[in-house]
Amino acid sequence: ANQADVAVTMTLNGNTLSTIKNGTATLVAGTDYTVSGSTVTLKKEYLATQGVGTTTLTFEFSAGAAQSLAVAVTDTTTPVSNSTITPTSAGFDKKTANQTDVAVTMTLNGNTLSAIKNGTATLVAGTDYTVSGSTVTLKKEYLATQAVGTTTLTFEFSAGAAQSLVVTISDTSVAPTVALKVQMYNGTVTASGNTLNPKFKLVNTSTSAVALSDVKLRYYYTIDGEKAQSFFCDWSQAGSANVTGTFVKLPTAKADADYYLELGFSSAAGSLAAGASIDIQVRVAKEDWSNYTQTGDYSFNAVDTNFVDWTKAPAYISGNLIWGSEPN
Fold first, then answer.
1. Alpha-carbon distance 148 to 74, whole Å?
2. What does the DSSP assignment read for 160-209?
3. Quick one: which H or E segment has residue 68?
4. Which of 31, 89, 136, 282 lies at a C-alpha separation of 20 to 30 Å from 234?
5. What is the Cα–Cα distance from 170 to 75, expressed in whole angstroms?
6. Minimal CA–CA distance to 278: which of 319, 317, 316, 236?
7. pLDDT digits over 140-179, tens only?
């Protein structure tokens, strides 16, 4: 709104203007500036392309010394503030008696809610969710249509970054018929380091095969400084590309965990036969590679150097806990 052309008056003293340069770049007459008599008009469209700071333009003439114009470029645009949502993770049980709406509180910071999306599908306001002031209520009727597993809903706003809500969909009306156990040790057991390196062995202890796409494993830990995180699967018999990793922040932090990494499998991972096992070797790091403190983390195994039964790495089938326990 504040952009304006800059007019410069030349006293030519018998010379003519040859060029105007910005460093080694030559401005284009008629586009970057115009000349009318002894007045040069620097176009706001050109000046708007310059970085904040000082831009020095050199006026060269047919004879005599060049002259410089220092243009102080500023940007008084009000910075965009991101909206936030609370919580960023929630659970939903598809069992009819346990179905409830999920309420999400928005801190809008001057923005407005534009849309809520599930992948590329846009939820329908008034049907899939309602908005009252700063509260969004996700309707149980919509959530009940989602498959067991993790559903990520993206809240988009009129300005600023989108925010994600991870909803863990379970169905406790379906009793699991397959038994699993998890063995685990940590590849790195130092108290502090920039990488978490849990190694898992998933064992089918039942007499029936299980589709790996129905299985989830969790590793609970403290993030020790909120940063974006990256997941790497280094190796698995299921295929590293078929192992997924999702970071979920606990709605209420606990003394030994405020996040968990949820491991899952794509349909291409196939099934785990009765009595069979697979290894999953993963790493977790913050995008700025700052340190985690592993000591005291709920799922951390500070002692063992080979696979042992580990109940602090819970396993789920179709959203139902079948091995281990979550932190209290």
1. 52
2. S--EEEEEEEE-TTS-----EEEEEEES---SEES-B-EEEEEEE-SSS-
3. strand 67-73
4. 89
5. 50
6. 236
7. 999 999 998 889 999 999 999 999 999 999 888 866 667 9
The pTM of the full predicted model, rounded to 2 decimals, is 0.55
DSSP for 145-173, please give it. Answer: TSPSEEEEEEEEESSS--EEEEEEEE-TT
Residue 233 near residue 280 (C-beta atoms within 8 A): yes
Q: What are phi and psi of 179, to 5 degrees?
A: -110, 135
Torsion of the alpha carbons at 273, 201, 265 and 92, rounded to the nearest 10: 100
pLDDT tens for each residue of 16-35 = 999 999 999 999 999 999 99
Domains and CATH numbers, the chain: 6-73 (no CATH), 84-170 (2.60.40.10), 180-323 (2.60.40.710)
Place of tokens 């008009």: 41
- Contact yes or no for 251/87 (Cβ under 8 A): yes
Evaluated on CA atoms 116, 117, 121, 127, the torsion sign reads negative
Can you tell me the distance from the alpha carbon of 169 to that of 32, in angstroms, rounded to the nearest whole number? 57
- The DSSP annotation for 248-308 comes to EEEEEEETTEEEEEEEEE-GGG-EE-TT-EEEEEEEEEETT-PPEE-TT-TT--SS-SS-E
Please report, to the nearest 10 degrees, the dihedral formed by the alpha carbons of residues 312, 188, 304, 180 taken in order: 40
Nearest-5° angle of CA 140, CA 143, CA 144? 85
